[in-house]
Amino acid sequence: MSDLTITPVLAADLPRWRELFEGYCAFYSVELTEADYDRVWAWIHDPERETRCLVARDADGVPVGLAHFRAYDSPLRGTSGFLDDLFVDPARRGSGAADALLAALTRVAAEEGWSTVRWNTAENNYRARAVYDRHAARTVFLTYSMDAAAS
Hints:
By secondary structure, this protein is an alpha+beta fold. The protein has a single domain (5-135), classed as Gcn5-related N-acetyltransferase (GNAT) (Aminopeptidase), CATH 3.40.630.30. It is built from 4 helices and 5 strands. The longest helix is centred in the C-terminal third of the chain and has 16 residues, at 97-112.
C-alpha cells in the first residue's frame, strides 16, 4: 500500500476515471450512455452536488481505483456517508487500493462529522466482501429497489 496515494479525482483524470467506472459498470452488467457518464462526471465536479470521488493513485500518479460517495441525511443517524461505488482495476486488486480508499473514506467521515458510512454490494461479490469485512460490520438490512411510477 506504500506506493498508493488517495486524492480527489482531478479534471485531468477523466479518461482514466472513465475506464475505471466502465469497469465497475461492466462488473454489475449496467450499460450507461455517454450522457450518463457525463452526468456522473459533472456531479463529481459540481459543488452544489453531494457526489464526490476519491481515487487511489499508483507511484506514477495513475488512478488504479475509485470511490464515489456522498453525504445523506438519516432521521435515525443524522448525517451519514454513503459509498455508491468502489472499484479497483483488476490488475491492481490485492494491492491495498480498496483498503486505502476505505481508510480515506473513514477520515472524510470523521472530518465531516458523519455518524457512519454505509454501502451495498452484491451477495456474490465475495472478493469485495472479504475487504469490506475488514473495515465494516455487515448489517441485517436487505436492499429493495422500486421503479418510479410511469406517467
